[in-house]
Hints:
8 helices; globular; Rossmann fold; 40% helix; alpha/beta
Amino acid sequence: MIDLTGKVAVIFGLANKRSIAWGIAQKLSEAGATIALCYQNERLKREADALLPELKSAKAFQCDLSVDAEIESTFAAFQQEFGKIDILVHAVAYAPADEIKNDFIFTSREGFRIAHDVSAYTLIAISRAALPLMTEGGAILTLSYYGAEKVFPNYNVMGVAKAALEATVRYLAASLGPKNIRVNAISAGPIKTLAARGIGDFTKILDTVTERAPLHRNVDQLEVGGAALFLCSPLASAITGEITYVDCGYNITGM
């Protein structure tokens, strides 16, 4: 059994109980970690407040990662509240709706910028902010998707942003390795999250995974949370810069 008692885990990207961030929070909390659960804005505060009582030891923080001043103030609050960070989870991605639904050739300059800023650059920003608090080393984890490697209908610029995110994982792993901080990503199978609602024909993607994946089913949030628990624990002490698939094996299939 993995024991994270005494560890502090900061998790960005909570939207509601269907969020992958929530599945990860549950698993890390069950292992004994103290959780800082972060949501983007006031609209999502109610969701966070409703979920907090289900965790053993947790507090909620509001932080819009597209605003540098909010990142700075939030990490200052972490320092005051916890004194350190051991685990940092980045479950954040966004692209404007039109950039997702339109043909990729019509991706706008601004839509491309926003998708990469929110979905990839924010991992760099929070890793840098966390660095002074990760004095004992630690683990940083983000979430990707197979659309970073292969073309998926209606994923478009988000697939390109996820490819940038995966490259960011490798460069951060090299940058932070000397400080005993590991950086990894989970490439999760499709899950009915709030973000997934913006992807056209998402049900078709779910059905295709069920048909073709070796396990003939889709993954759920808690299974992703279990993999996250492993990657953020001492059991994964020699693993960094990796993209780990948690997709019921879909990524290994051809026809």
